[in-house]
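Service request form, structural biology core

Requester: graduate student, group of Dr. S.
Request type: structure prediction, single chain
Budget code: on file
Notes: please return the result as structure tokens.

Sequence provided:
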Amino acid sequence: MADKAKDPRAGADPQPLGQGLLEAVVDALGAGQAAEVARLIDPLHPADAARLLGDLRPADRRALLDLWSAEIDGDILSELDPELRGEVLGSLGPDALAEALSELETDDVVDLFETLDPAGQARVLGALEGPERAAVEASLAYPEGSAGRLMQREVVTAPDHWTVGETIDLLRAAESLPDQFYHVVLVDPRMRPIGQATLGRILSSRREVRLADILEADFRTIGATEAEADVAHLFNRYHLISAPVVDAAGRLAGVITIDDAMTVLDEEHAEDVLRLAGVEGEGAAGEGALATVARRLPWLVVNLGTASLSALVIGQFQATITGLVILAALMPIVASTGGIAGTQALAVAVRALATRSLTPANARRAILRELGAGALNGLALAAVLGFGAWAVLGDGPLGLVLAGAMICNQVVAALGGVLVPLGLHRLGLDPALASGTFVTTLTDVMGFLAFLGLASMVLIG
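Core staff response, request fulfilled:
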């Protein structure tokens, strides 16, 4: 695709995006002052302009698009929340859409395409010129979530026998270059990548130096069908800046740059945080209440079912609670403290699995570490709780029961926090999505069972 033109906003001082600017834009929209709207928004960075579009109420956003849509470029489109892209894209005329898309690399167009409905996707493909459309369609032929979808097809290449001088002459003579590139990829006559040289090494070397003599020592290629999550972890582990992508025959298909890889990593971490809370796939702030309920209610129903197990356990000790009413006031202490400890261990384990630092090779060490931490935490909390029960209630045996139950539940919480996500991961399930419910149920049930069981034996029996 064509290289991006210099953004006139680059030299302007970015305006702070606050309530004052938002209100000024709304006032200008209400008065139909197109020039004032442009004066307020044009200096904004594309990310801030996209955020402003998301912060506006739907009616104000439609009014803004009526007045200002011709100024929306590819950078703003790519920065928009996925939920808004279809609406904004629909406001652009064919020429404005074609111009905006021409400013984007293929990976950005593919990312935009994937977030649109079929009608929006058809508009995007129809607005692309022949070579650009062919490049995007070639990327879309790869599986969703693969390196082939993540890569940009614009790559700077050179034959393996070229010198630095020949390469620099090529770069200077090129009518367009990728907006972001960090390497020149060396290819053999069959277009298979054999190495890459950084721009810094090229510019700092004499013209007669062969590219083959200044290649990066650590050269890796990525298969086009590899999962983008694996690609992101590869970049993070080996500190890659960019890496060529190859097809099934080993030919160069494109290149992935660090910004796209880190975006995938950030998205993975954000998804894990949401899944731990049982709110996978939460949309933007503008999402409706019914859509939010549809995402959250199923997990609340599941939690309702698992919570019933705790009630069932408590019901088995009805006579014990009736005989010593103070137990009803104290038993949530053990269960809730165990729940917190389980969540702590779970968060560490899920993050370790997500970053590939927890593997079958070191799982035993992680389990023993959590077991030791749970036992030590349990002893410390047991001492505090047991002494408190004796000092406040004047009941030494009750303090011992509380202490024993606390130690038991802390150990269970620590083990559950690491074993549950490991087990789900081994079964091919997402530990971030399902672990929280199981660990919470485990600590609640074991907390009540340990406390009420010990109370039955020591205080009642």
